[in-house]
Hints:
Blueprint: H1 2-24, H2 29-43, H3 46-59, H4 64-78, H5 81-94, H6 99-112
Helix pairs in contact: 1-2, 2-3, 3-4, 4-5, 4-6, 5-6
Amino acid sequence: DVKNAFAARQLEATELYYQEALQADPTHPLLLRNYAQFIVEGFGDLPRAELWYERALAANQNDGELAAQYGKLVWDLYKDQERAAQYFDHGLRASPDNGYVLAAYAHFLWKSGGH
């Protein structure tokens, strides 16, 4: 179908853009984070996104939203409550007043049965 073919070409073009941008600046934290998020949302490829989230965290350990996004990925991919909670805790320490971090943590607690 034409619509699906167009969407596939858009994904390919966007991925190519990210790859070129990452070649130019391979340690840019926001670029790494956005690429990881793109991989999750565009392809649903959590294992591949994990590598890019890890690189983003290495580049910027003070990004609470990034830590929360990675915690969500860890939970979704491995259902590892302890490990995911560590990333959510890190996110809360880095950004205690960030609405995204607070909401993501609440959602994690609800889904994981945590307290």
